[in-house]
Design goal:
Order of helices and strands: HHH
Number of domains: 1
Structural class: mainly alpha
Largest sheet: none
Number of strands: 0
Number of helices: 3
Helix content: over 70%
Shape: elongated
Radius of gyration: 18 Å
Oligomer: single chain
Strand content: under 5%
C-alpha cells in the first residue's frame, strides 16, 4: 500500500507541474492533469503487478518507475490536449460574440 501512495503522490505532483507550466491553464482546473496522472499511474502499477514484474528482485523497479513515467506522460498529454482544445473553443466563442450585431 505504501507503493500506491508514493506513486499516487509523485504522479499527482507531476500533474500539478504540468498544469503550472501550461500556458492555457486558465481554461481548465488544476486537478484535471493530476487526476489523469494518478489514474494512469495506478492502473499501470496494477497491471505490472498482475503480470508479476514486482515479484522478482531484478524487475521490482519496473512497476515503480514505469508507473510514474506513464503518469507524467498522461498529465502532460491531458494538459496539452485539453488546454489547447478549450482555448480554441473559447476564442471561437468570443469571436462569435464580438461579431454579433
Amino acid at each position: 500500500m505504501v507503493a500506491l501512495v508514493i506513486i499516487a503522490l509523485c504522479s499527482g505532483a507531476l500533474g500539478a507541474i504540468a498544469w503550472a507550466v501550461d500556458k492555457y491553464r486558465s481554461t481548465f482546473g488544476a486537478v484535471l492533469p493530476a487526476g489523469a496522472a494518478v489514474v494512469a499511474s495506478l492502473l499501470v502499477w496494477i497491471i505490472t503487478m498482475a503480470v508479476g514484474l514486482g515479484n522478482d528482485s531484478s524487475t521490482a523497479w519496473i512497476p515503480w518507475i514505469f508507473s510514474i513515467v506513464v503518469g507524467g506522460a498522461a498529465a502532460w498529454a491531458t494538459a496539452g490536449f485539453v488546454g489547447r482544445a478549450r482555448h480554441t473553443q473559447l476564442v471561437q466563442q468570443a469571436n462569435a460574440i464580438l461579431h454579433m450585431q
